[in-house]
Structures are given as C-alpha cells and as structure tokens.
C-alpha cells in the first residue's frame, strides 16, 4: 500500500468516528415529564368550592392564579386563601393563606409553603387561634394539619413556639414538640 491509500483510510475512519460522536451528542429535545407539560387549564382571580366524597364542602379556595397539571391532575396555586369549614354546628372555619400552594388530584391534601398563616375565626366571646409557619400540610376531609418545621401558635395572652405540629382543626387542639411557651397578661 502506498501512503495516499493509508492517509485516505485514516481520514475516512476519522470522519466516521467524528460523525458517530456528533450523532450521540445531538440534542434529543426536551425530556418528557410532568414538569415539562404545559397546564391543561389556568384560572385567574377565581373562587372554587371543593366537595368531599359525601357532597359536603371540603374547602373553599380563592387565589389570583391556579394551574392544573394534565398528567398528575394536581393544582399549583399562587397566594392561595383556603377556608376550611367546621363540621360542627356553630364551629368556626379556618382561614389558611400562604405564598404558594399545591392540591392533590383527589383534593384530600393541601401543601402550603412560604409565609403560611392559619387563623381560626372566633365568636365575640372567644379568642382566635393563629398558626404561623413556613410549611403546612392540611388534610381538609380529616380536618387535620401537620408541619415538620418551626411553628408559632398565638392566642391572646399565649405564645407557643415549637416544631412538628399536629393539629386537629375541628377540636382546635394543637400538639408541638420542643415547645417554648410564654404567657402574657391581657387584662
């Protein structure tokens, strides 16, 4: 073989190798997944009433924007305000707000994040309960809420700080771990 044939074969092998490398590193487009799917609908400045399996009001939601994921059927919400009614006659609803929210496809779990505040409305002769945290998971049908992070619970004359909140929203019973409590005279 002469040197021209060897050079041609070497250049051909190099071109094939370069083509194969470029083919394997090509842009294959966006990966398919729930995060890349556009919402199947968007609501702006709305009020929504969700019903439980028995047809009773589970919660009311007001927000400036909601997007529904078409794959998981979950809802992503900006600055939501949830009103969770009491099942007891004469009971008070909880009003829960945050910067962001997420609702499960079945509507049985609400995840609230960033500047979360929950307030239990009260009659004139009762005092409201206020919960402040950065993360709160609410289960409206069970009338229960949980938070693994730092939580502050206040009532007139009482401030409790702790973590790992478990709250029975129907009975207004709250449990915290690592609690520090401060009582103040309100008279």
From TrEMBL:
The keyword Oxidoreductase does not apply. InterPro entries: LipoPS_assembly_LptC-rel (IPR010664), LPS_export_LptC (IPR052363), LptC (IPR026265). Gene3D superfamilies: Lipopolysaccharide (LPS) transport protein A like domain. GO terms for cellular component: outer membrane-bounded periplasmic space; plasma membrane. Keywords: Cell inner membrane, Cell membrane, Membrane, Transmembrane, Transmembrane helix. GO terms for molecular function: glycolipid transfer activity; lipopolysaccharide transmembrane transporter activity. This is LPS export ABC transporter periplasmic protein LptC. It comes from Marilutibacter penaei. The lineage of its organism: Bacteria, Pseudomonadati, Pseudomonadota, Gammaproteobacteria, Lysobacterales. The gene is lptC.
């Amino acid at each position: 073989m002469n040197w021209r044939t060897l050079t041609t074969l070497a250049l051909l092998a190099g071109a094939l190798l370069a083509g194969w490398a470029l083919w394997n590193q090509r842009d294959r487009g966006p990966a398919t997944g729930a995060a890349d799917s556009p919402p199947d609908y968007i609501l702006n400045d709305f009020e929504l009433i969700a019903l439980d399996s028995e047809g009773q009001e589970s919660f009311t939601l007001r927000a400036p924007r909601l997007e529904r994921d078409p794959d998981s059927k979950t809802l992503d919400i900006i600055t939501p305000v949830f009103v969770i009614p009491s099942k007891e006659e004469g009971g008070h609803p909880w009003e829960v707000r945050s910067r962001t929210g997420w609702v499960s496809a079945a509507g049985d779990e609400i995840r609230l994040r960033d500047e979360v505040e929950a307030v239990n409305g009260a009659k004139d002769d009762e005092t409201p309960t206020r919960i402040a945290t950065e993360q709160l998971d609410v289960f409206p049908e069970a009338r229960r809420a949980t938070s693994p992070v730092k939580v502050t619970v206040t009532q007139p004359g009482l401030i409790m700080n702790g973590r790992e909140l478990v709250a029975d929203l129907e009975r207004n019973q709250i449990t915290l771990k690592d609690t520090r409590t401060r009582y103040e005279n309100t008279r």
